[in-house]
Amino acid sequence: xxxxxxxxxxxxxxxxxxxHVRRAMDSVLAQTYVxxxxxxxxxxxxxxxxxxxxxxxxxxxxxxSQNNAGVSAxxxxxxxxxxxxxxxxxxxxxxxxxxxxxTVVGLCNRYPRAGMCATxxxxxxxxxxxxxxxxxxxESPDGGLLDDYFRAAFGTPPVHPSAVLVPRWVLxxxxxxxxxxxxxxxxxxxxxxxxxYRVAWAPQExxxxxxxxxxxxxxxxxxxxxxxxGQVIEEFLLSGAEPVSPRLMVEEYLVVHRLRxxxxxxxxxxxxxxxxxxxxxxxxxxxxxxxxxxxxxxRIPPRMLRGARRGKGSxxxxxxxxxxxxxxxxxxxxxxxxxxGPREG
Length: 345
Hints:
The chain has 345 residues and is an alpha/beta fold. Helix content is 40%, strand content 17%. Strands 1, 2, 3, 4, 5, 6, 7, 8, 9 and 10 form a 10-stranded mixed beta sheet that branches. Strand 1 (8-14), helix 1 and strand 2 form a beta-alpha-beta unit. Helix 9 packs antiparallel against helix 10 (271-279). The chain is globular.
């Protein structure tokens, strides 16, 4: 049950990240909050990443191994092996700023019933850092509870797997990461938590998400037939349970991400998947314009749209209009539809 944590466990899944894992580990050991253990789960790596961890001499570090089973299984193994009542996650190719643990543990102490505590993060590609645009998030330097996780997640995800701490009692309630889900396993977990609990968030950029790491799972693949979170959200809503967020925002969260996924499917030539996803968004009230634009886009051959995305085709304006107009509309409509805010978790 909720309480004030004094120690936390850090779980790091490791698979063929020999070039990056030392950076991640050094960022953990540089934390201003020092009451932690680090559990590195070697998920059947075939490089020397595990040796790098093994050669780090700090009593707080523990290296465990499993046959390759994927990042969700590795995180779940780390959770089972952890000793403390809060668990922070860090991918082996990302890193923390020195204040990360101090910030999220502070949030956990201030909001003991929050389902997860997260911070803003920066994105690094080829040595260039940028802060993504977070919408409908907490602006106070001290952080606070998000009014509505799902509305905030219409755009840049406010919760990243390398910038979050989750109490063990929440994990016991919602279960572990979904094994067998190859993409979106983290959003699957965050959605299951955010349906039931409020989310604490701080605007400080306390983590760095690296996009140029080796063996990044999102590279080389684009989509699945539907969102990883689709079934879990729909089953929750059909159960009669009331989400912490307004029900409309939860439904529209599925809409906006299904529209994005439909476009990706269509660009890759998976037109049946794309059309099936588009049908699932027919009831939208906030993203009607985006849906109309996407219907127009589906009349254009995928090859020509791919050229437009690269800025070489005549239909570039179509994709730009879909992103620009629908984003502005969702910000205005989301504020109106979300008046009153969610209940306390």
